Amino acid sequence: MIKLDHLALVVADYRASRDRYTTNLGLMIEFEIPERATAALQDDAEFTFFVHQAASDKPAGSSTTLYFQVEDVVATHRDLVERDVAFVHGPRKEFWGFGAELLDPDGHVVRLWDERSMREEGGG
Predict the structure, then answer these.
(1) Domain range for 7
(2) How many other C-beta atoms can be found within 10 angstroms of the C-beta atom of residue 88?
(3) For residue 1, is pLDDT > 50?
(4) Of 17, 48, 106, 107, which is least surrounded by CB within 10 A?
(5) Which of 37, 55, 73 is the last residue of a domain?
(6) Contact partners, residue 60, CB within 8 Å, separation at least 6
(7) Helix (H, G, I), strand (E, B) or coil at 19
(8) Position 64 pLDDT exceeds 90
(9) In angstroms, rounded to a whole number, what is the distance separating the alpha carbons of residues 27 and 29?
(10) Count of domains in the chain?
(11) Measured in Å, how far apart are the chain's first and last C-alpha atoms?
């Protein structure tokens, strides 16, 4: 059996990324290691991903894309926009399916989708 267990993102400021994911998407902090500039964040299904601050001589950012399943992508988008969260685009049909897209503080792509919209609206 192969099961994705953890994911790590190299970021410019782990505290800013930690706060963005916990405040905007409701992830929980599983644990934090400040002396290593690392926080472990967990979703409702207990999947953990790490935000780890890049060394000063190495840039943050990558071509990583995170996909978060939400209950209702249209309602989630509306709620986040009301809290002044900027989006690349709102819910719409894309090559990967139907959903909304935003960027985290380091430019990692974050895509939000829901099962019903994906099934009914489909992908490109």
Answers:
(1) 1-55
(2) 11
(3) no
(4) 107
(5) 55
(6) 10, 11, 12, 53, 54, 106
(7) helix
(8) no
(9) 7
(10) 2
(11) 31
- Alpha carbon distances (Å) from 89 to 83, 102, 110: 16, 7, 11
Please name every residue paired with 52 in a beta bridge, in sequence order, or none if there are none: 10, 38
Decide: pTM greater than 0.90: no
User: Does 116 lie in the same domain as 81?
Assistant: yes
Strand arrangement of the beta sheet that strand 109-113 belongs to: 65-69, 109-113, 97-103, 89-94
Task: Reduce the DSSP state of residue 58 to 3 states and report it.
Answer: coil
Residue labelled with tokens 């935000």: 51
Do 69 and 20 fall into the same domain? no
70 burial class (0-12, 13-18, 19+ CB within 10 angstroms)? buried
> Which H or E run includes 75?
helix 73-82
Kindly state whether residues 12 and 68 are assigned to the same domain: no
